[in-house]
Structure formats: C-alpha cells, structure tokens
Design goal:
With about 475 residues, the chain is an all-alpha fold. The chain is built from 19 helices and no strands. Residues about 1-15 have low confidence and may be disordered.
C-alpha cells in the first residue's frame, strides 16, 4: 500500500521584467544627471539669495562633482560585493534626502554640504547602472537597444536640466530645482525595490582593498578639484596639486599590482576596447559639457536671453537626442557596427562645434545656434550608445560593476576638464580684449568663439583616437 504524503509547497519565484528594470534604472540616472545641470541657469538667483561671491558660487557645482567623480570606482566595486540593487537603492535614498536638504538650505555652508552629500548619493546610484544593464541584456541586439534607451535618457537629461532649471527658477524659486527630486526619488526607490531582481553580490568577505580605495578616491577627488578650480588659483598651486594627484595615482597603481584582492583589477586596462573607449569619452564629453555651459552663457550674455528663454532654447536637443537614439540608434549600430556609427557621430559633433565658433555678437538663435545644436544632438545620439557598447564589451561579467564605475568616472573627469579648459580660455580671451578697449558684448562673443573652436579641435582628437584605437580587428579579440 502506497502512502501519499503532501509535499511541501515551494515558494513561487517572481518573474522580473528586464524592460521594467531598465525604466527604473533610467529614472534613477535621469535624476542624478538632471541635478548636475539644473543649477546652471539658477546660479544668479542662488548667488543673490544666499550672498555667494563669484568664486564661492562655483562651489555649488564643485561640491557635487568632487565626491561624485571621486567615489565612482569605490562604490562600483562595493556594488559588486554587496549587490548592485542594494547599492542603487541606497544611492537613491541618500540622493533624495540630500536634495531635500539643498531645497531648504538657508546658508552657503548648508547648501554646499548638502550638494556634497548629493554627490555621494549620485555616485552610489550611477556607478552600478551600466553593470546591471549589461547583465540584464546579454544578447547583443537587445543590449544595443537597452543602451540606446539608457544613453537617450542620460543625454536628453543633461539638456532637459537646463530647461527645468530656468522654468522652475522663474516660475517659483531656485529651491524647487532641488525639491522636485523628492517625489521623483521616492517613486524611483519604491519602484526599484519592487521591480529590480534582488542579488547577493560576492560578499564583503571577498574584500575591497580599502587602502587602495582611499588612494584612488583621494586621487580622483583631488583631480576633479584641480580641474574645476583651476581658474581660481595661480599656476604654481595648480601644478603642485596636479603632481600630488599623480603621485596618489602612482601609489594606487603599485598597490593594485601587489594587493591580493585589488579594488581595480589592472587587467581591465589590457582591454583595448575598454581603455580606448574611456579615453575617447574624456575628449567627447569634455566637448559636449563645455558646449552646454558656454552655449547657455552665449544665449544669456551675448543674445540677452532670460532664464526661461535660455532653457527653452535648449529643448530641441533632448527632443532630437531622444528621437534619434530610441528610433534609429540600435538599428543603425546593428546594421553598420558600433565603430562606424561612433565615427559618424564624432564627425557631426566636430561640425557643430566648428559652426558655433562663428557665432557673432549680433547673432541669431535660428541661424547661428539652432543648426549647430541639432548637429551636436545628432552626433551625440549616434556616438554615445556606440561608445558605451564598445566600452562594456571590453569588460568581463565579474568586472561589469567596476567597468561601469570606470566609465562613469571618465565622464565626470572629461566633463570637468572640458568645462575648465574652455571656460578659462573664453574668460582670458574676453579679458584681454576688454583690456585693449573692446566693448563688452563683442569681447564676450569672441571669447566664446575661441572656446567653441578649441572644442572642435578636442572633438577632432576624439575622432582620430577612436579611428585608430577602436578599429575592429579580424585577427585579434580583447
């Protein structure tokens, strides 16, 4: 006689949607990218309200960029250890709380401290996103589509931040450029906990080489500090700080070569694709970030646009980027290959910056700004997804979080470097012309023209580097 026993009920495993997960990752990324740009147009209002000096006002941006750029590698590795979902959710929590502190700030010190905390949360959120994305979409065609969506959100978010900053500041006040993150952050956090599949990570017992982490974090923070503050100190001090940053990087490299469990596996740089793509990105993002900042100043200080009108003038950029990336990018990469699409995008970026180099003091938005704006948008829409795919293709699965942190780090360093170089060139050119008796608006316009032309030269450098280093090889693989 057979005795029938009731088998224990097994827990039902949820099925997590990859595309819903992509939406959540994009929402978190959009919030951090918006906040990097949304303050640009609101800076005069913040200065007037809190009494910032001109050099002190720069720290509203710098206080965010320094911890953001400095911590990306460390939190990328910690995400691999504790689980990328946990790191992403924790980053959203820190970023949202810091945004509220920024929004209620009543003093310079409070705002700068809250902006630094925002940078920490932004790093925690951003460092693990690409690693999660390539794990969710391992198949090449789907991965290209997912990267196109992610890149569209990131690229459009930068330009959209300029519009929202102007609109919120003019309609309400500057506090709302930060408070708007509260509902977005809460919804994104709840969605992340609901939608993203849990993962255990490798475990903290695998180690994160904390001495190495201290060296590289200090080196990256000092590098960003040297870059973003180069216009406010003399050349000797800048060179000394740069030498110190280089010494920290050398010490970190030596440490990684000897550590049993290194934070940054040096084998990553043995990948031609990963190393080359990061180098190209420094130049490309430097060009684009400089364009966003100096382009907004050209509209305000040369053409006389107000805050809202300046933000509105940038709206065609996120629209064009979104349409092109979502509608054409993945299919174009699938048909022609990431390498060819990247080169075509860099050609368009070069052309757009060269056209801006001719923008005169009596220029018109329709004839002198809109055409190059559309060229730059189309170029970035083509180049960014292709470059991202190339970079992440050069990383192993176990290094995905670290490679994501590295890719985001070079974005911050490239943007900071481009902004510092182009803004200093523009300022020095304008001051020289004013010293020679030129009028303010024509002198300002010539300073911006020089910056745009140098930006075009940087884009040419990115194009040449990509053409040589990232060329597909039939006889070798990374």
């Amino acid at each position: 006689m057979t005795v029938l026993t009731e088998s224990p009920t097994r827990p039902t495993h949820r099925t997590y949607s990859r595309w819903a997960s992509l939406v959540v990752l994009c929402a978190g990324t959009l919030m951090t990218i918006l906040d990097g740009n949304i303050v640009t147009v609101a800076m005069p209002a913040i200065q007037s309200d809190l009494g910032f000096s001109a050099p002190g006002l720069a720290w509203v941006v710098n206080a965010y960029l320094i911890p953001f750029g400095g911590l990306l590698l460390l939190v990328g590795r910690l995400g691999d250890l504790v689980g990328r979902r946990r790191m992403f959710a924790a980053g959203l929590t820190v970023f949202t709380a810091a945004s509220v502190l920024c929004g209620v700030a009543t003093s310079q010190g409070m705002l700068i401290a809250a902006r630094a905390l925002q940078g920490v949360g932004g790093a925690m959120t951003s460092a693990v996103v690409l690693g999660m994305l390539v794990s969710l979409f391992p198949e090449p065609r789907e991965q290209a589509r997912a990267i196109a969506v992610f890149s569209a959100v990131g690229a459009a978010g930068g330009a959209l931040g300029t519009f929202l900053g102007g609109a919120l500041t003019q309609a309400l006040n500057w506090h709302w450029i930060f408070l708007i993150n509260l509902p977005i952050g809460v919804v994104a956090l709840l969605a992340a906990l609901r939608v993203l599949a849990p993962e255990d990570g490798e475990g903290l017992g695998r180690g994160a080489d904390y001495p190495g982490a201290a060296l590289v974090t200090g080196a990256l923070m000092l590098t960003v500090y040297v870059i973003v503050g180069s216009g406010d100190r003399d050349l000797t001090a800048t060179l000394l700080l740069a030498v110190l940053a280089l010494a920290l990087f050398v010490a970190f490299t030596v440490r990684q070569a000897r550590a049993a469990r290194p934070l940054l596996r040096l084998r990553l740089f043995g990948s031609r694709l990963l190393s080359g793509a990061n180098a190209v990105q420094v130049l490309m993002i430097g060009t684009m970030f400089g364009f966003q900042f100096i382009g907004a100043l050209y509209l305000q200080r040369v053409l006389g646009y107000g805050e809202l009108l300046t933000g509105t003038a940038f709206l065609p950029a996120p629209i064009a980027i979104g349409v092109l990336m979502l509608g054409l990018s993945a299919r174009t990469i699938g048909r022609f290959g990431a390498y060819r699409v990247l080169l075509a995008g860099l050609v368009l970026i070069t052309g757009g910056m060269a056209l801006l180099g001719r923008a005169p003091a009596d220029g018109s938005y329709v004839t002198d700004v809109l055409p190059p704006l559309l060229l730059l948008s189309a170029g970035f829409a083509a180049a960014m997804p292709a470059l991202t795919g190339i970079a992440m293709a050069g990383a192993r699965e176990e290094d995905a979080g670290l490679a994501s942190g590295l890719f985001n780090t070079t974005q911050v360093v490239g943007g900071s470097l481009g902004l510092a170089i182009l803004s200093v060139l523009a300022s020095n050119r304008t001051e020289g012309l004013l010293g020679g008796g030129a009028e303010l608006v024509p002198a300002t316009a010539e300073g911006y023209q020089l910056a745009f032309r140098v930006g075009a030269g940087i884009a040419v450098g990115a194009l040449g580097l990509a053409a040589v280093v990232l060329r597909p090889r039939a006889d070798a693989q990374d």
